[in-house]
Amino acid sequence: MNYEEISTLESTYTSGGVGRRPVAIVRASGARLWDSEGNEYIDCAASQGWANVGHSHPAVVAAIQRQLQIYVAGQESSFNDQRALWMQELAGVLQPSLNWDGCVIHPSNSGTEANEAAIKFARYITGRPGIVAAKRSFHGRTMGALSLTWNPKYRKPFEPLVPGVTHATFDDIDSFAEAVGDDTAAVIIEIVQGEGGVFPGSGEFFRALRQLCTERGALLIVDEIQTGVGRTGRWLACEHFGLSPDVVTLGKSIGGGLPMGVTAWRSELGRLKPGLHGSTFGGNPLACAASRAVIQVMRDENLPARADRLGQELRENLAALPTQKIRQVRGLGLMVGVELRGKVTPVLQQLIQRGVWALPAGLNVLRLLPPLVIQEEDLARVTAVIGEVLA
Q: Does 133 lie in the same domain as 18?
């Protein structure tokens, strides 16, 4: 099918809730995309941040193919070998990364669902109703996660939302100290605010926030849905600051392209009673097999360290571009934000025409989230093309 046929057919039935660029992507491999007309793109969006190990990584594809022939999804109320091994392997990553002695893992189907589970667990374990999130935060689009999300354009059409949620200023401990009270069940935070403009927080802020939550009996939840699985140059972005939260949520890349979310917490906090929360497809054998392959690829190819090195080079090269249209380059690892002195949409359109697929982060921030397997010559090409567009 060509673009006109695909776009006409899909437009006939789509809800309209998601905007579409005038391109039909039909194939992907590694850090490359191809559209229906045969045009090739360097992927600097990782398909909204999920393709950390790249598209169709051979190890992930092989794991999926094997499991497809054995057992895809079934009884959540039974034990399963793939889920058991996946939990063991994921715990082996999370515990040293977060300085936990043990962890409890609850699987779901997306990062949004992982945050929903985190809200429920925080209220259950503390007996308190309140949740404090950050201004400029993004935590998902279902009603609970949307209540945590700050941007009014996402919230307003669906109000009233879940009560008991307040927002404090990111990277401002005084603002959080004012918001966290005796009725606060949890504080939820991103280490780098992605949708909010690719703003990393400071170590001083995170250390003070950890102490504040401990003193006031509130759980500290870190949303690592976009920053986790090697994106920032560590397995988890928490590691940059030695931060040990009570709960962490994962999504996007943890499933290797299959829908998966994870809510994990320190084992000493306890567990849920049977029947309190569940998911028909959460932790299904197929997704667990894919995720196990992701964990193995991350280890075998040392992708967090690669993201750290390539991200530093990318930020330096972007900051050195001879243009006055860049106000600031910031980020961690291969999570990069280029704040422009103008709107980002025209820049994104010109990048697509030149074979680079990138993302916005607000009205004036160009967001780059390339797969961690991207080749260095591709990153050099991306930097050159951005320079051409901004010249």
A: no
Kindly report the pTM of this predicted structure.
0.97
Largest CA distance in the chain: 60
> Which helix (H) or strand (E) covers residue 259, if one does?
none
Give the number of other CB atoms < 10 A from CB of residue 132.
Answer: 25
Question: Strand 40-43 and strand 356-357: pairing?
Answer: parallel
Count of domains for the chain:
2
DSSP letters for 321-356: SS-SSEEEEEEETTEEEEEESS-SHHHHHHHHHTTE
pLDDT tens per residue, range 163-186: 999 999 999 999 999 999 999 999
By the 8 A CB rule, do 167 and 133 touch? Answer: yes
Q: Is the pLDDT of residue 162 over 90?
A: yes
Q: Which of 257, 274, 300 is the last residue of a domain?
A: 300
**Torsional sign, CA 258, 77, 72, 89:** positive
Residues 6 or more apart whose CB falls under 8 angstroms from that of 160 comprise none
pLDDT(74) > 90 = no
Count how many Cα atoms sit within 13 Å of the Cα of residue 248 in the half-sphere of its side chain: 31
From 164, 166, 184, 183, select the one nearest 175 (Cα to Cα).
166
Does residue 69 share a domain with residue 170?
yes
69 shares a domain with 33: no
Shared domain check, 316 and 286:
no
Q: What is the pLDDT of residue 309?
A: 98
CATH classification of the domain holding 144: 3.40.640.10
Q: Of the candidates 317, 315, 314, 341, which has an alpha carbon nearest to the alpha carbon of residue 327? A: 341
Is residue 338 within 8 A of residue 358, CB to CB? The reply is no
Our separate counts of H helices and E strands in the chain read: 13, 17
The distance of Cα 366 from the centroid of its chain, to the nearest Å, equals 17
Residue-range definition of the domain harbouring residue 241:
61-300
Q: What is the per-residue DSSP string for 268-318?
A: GG--PPTTSS--SSTT-HHHHHHHHHHHHHHHHTTHHHHHHHHHHHHHHHH
Residue 310: exposed, middle, or buried by beta-carbon count in 10 A (0-12, 13-18, 19+)? buried
